[in-house]
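Pilot study result, target chain (293 residues):
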Amino acid sequence: MPTSTLRSQLDKDGFVVVRSILNASQLQQLRRAAEHTTTIACSGDWPHVRTVGKQFPPWTWSPGVAIWGVQHLLNPALPESATFTASYFGDEILDVAKELLGPCSDDELVMELYNLLVRPSDGKDFELRWHRDDISAEATAEEEIERLSKPAWHAQWNLALCDDDESLIVVPGSHTRSRTEREKTADPFEPNMPGQLVVQLNAGDVVFYNNNILHRGRYDGSRERLSLHGSVGHVAGGKHRARNVLQHAVGSWVASCDFSSLGEQQKARAEGMRARLVKLGSDSGDVGYSLTG
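Predicted structure:
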């Protein structure tokens, strides 16, 4: 049963917004790191990116290809990884995540993903189609309900580092039901889905959402965007979460993560979360991809 207002709202609507989760110093430091990381990625010096024209992994960058996201912020090879690592394993985000996941303790958290969503580097608008992250658009109503009836076992968020972030569009409550006939037959990029809501964030605001809520992304090529896109799992999720996480190829570098800059409590938390991710990978094997295109 829900034990908090945040958890109740997430269960009801499929998303919940927390305002001003960062102080001014944290926001300034993260924005500076995000700007530097975006510059590196656009220059081709960090090839782990999301490319314009492709919504789901895997992505392959080549010279001249525009990007809309940067992958693997916790990879120690990334120059700004220490700043992002402190953010990911810090209390600000994880205290909320633990409340939404149970409540639960540090010992039940699993390290998952941390990425950066940015304005398309070619300056042109780019949109993602309506989707659920781990349920195919071809799924039957029965298949949707079968998956949606299970616990989510994750906390996923977008943390805005810029004002006027209106990129995430959701259909509140759609995480508890199969799609309507109107939703099934709508254009994949339908601009006015019945009941849709544009999530409005300013710098330092964060939205947590069930990744199987019906949602899409809208990237305005004329508006700056820097949004930290992360997720953590609950150890009880096991293989239900494996594909969502392991399809992003984190296994190639997770063992080399550097937690030396963290305080003792955060370091212990991070080591435990990483160990549970490594176990998830060894238990799951080849997981494939949730969605294509």
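One observation from the pilot: Residues 264-284 form the longest helix (21 residues). A full batch analysis is planned for the follow-on phase.
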